[in-house]
Amino acid sequence: MQPDPIFIDHQGQRTLIKWHRARRKASDAEFTPTRILEAMRLGASVEVDLVVHADKGFAILHDLELDHGTTGSGLVCETSAETLRQLFLRGNDGEPIADRVMLLEDLCNLLAANPAHPDALLQLDYKEDLSRLSPAVIANFAAAVSKVAHTMILSGGDSAAVASLAAATPGLRTGYDPTYVGVLDDLQTREDFSRFIATALKTAPEAAMIYLDYELILAADAAGVDLIGAAHADNRRVDAWTIRSITPVMLAKVRRLLDLCVDQITTDDPEGLLLALAEGAA
Questions:
Q1: pTM above the 0.85 mark?
Q2: Any long-range contacts for 185-192 (C-beta under 8 Å, 24+ apart)?
Q3: Residue 80 carries which DSSP code?
Q4: pLDDT per residue as tens digits for the range 217-231
Q5: Domain of residue 92, residue span
Q6: Which of 44, 45, 6, 200 is nearest to 124 (CA)?
Q7: Domain for residue 2, yes or no?
Q8: What is the pLDDT of residues 21-80, one digit of tens each?
């Protein structure tokens, strides 16, 4: 029987496989409660995204607009909680599925009613910035998350936003993603890459996990800089995102990430990745 896609063992190092947008396999729809609960029951690492809605809470969605991922239209920030709960998610083919949009409190209530495996970790990836976090939004976040905070890690690209939410939510771990659009155009030399990771670690001193585009990690490696090693030296863990398609070229890149001792790999196809690596090792 094929093992559940939870981790990869490679040369004495265990690397977690993170279920990106709560997908176990490439054909899965995003953010379905069935897959989230399955991941948490198995002890997997799983990620969902957070976007602020009109009633100063959070929707479990990636996009700031509703049109692509749901049966709604318009901006999430202009849509009420009641309306969001009536919308259906769309599958990979764009067709509506049976699952509706969840709000953060819905997800947290679900997790509270279905206790997670001790090793499970749910990443809440905040997709916006500090300007969206009014006192009411922060209070609503804390009210929703506090009862299950020990099973979660909050991440985002705005370290101040992450810190503000975490400060109101005791027991919640945090992570930081310093990757930005066009980063590889700005980083060319060894000194550039070294300065980049040093700044990231300084910017988010409380972040337990540093989230880095896998292409950034490999570009730094080619330039002679070990970003993962630098993070490890500062007692941080590193997640490499996102492995989307499982091809021979991509598998070679994944194996290099494993050689570099990456702590976690984010992928849209956890099952496919684990199977391909196992077949390659056979």
A1: yes
A2: 187/216, 187/219, 187/220, 188/223, 189/223, 190/223, 190/224, 190/225
A3: -
A4: 999 999 999 999 999
A5: 7-281
A6: 45
A7: no
A8: 999 999 999 999 999 999 999 999 999 999 999 999 999 999 999 999 999 999 999 999
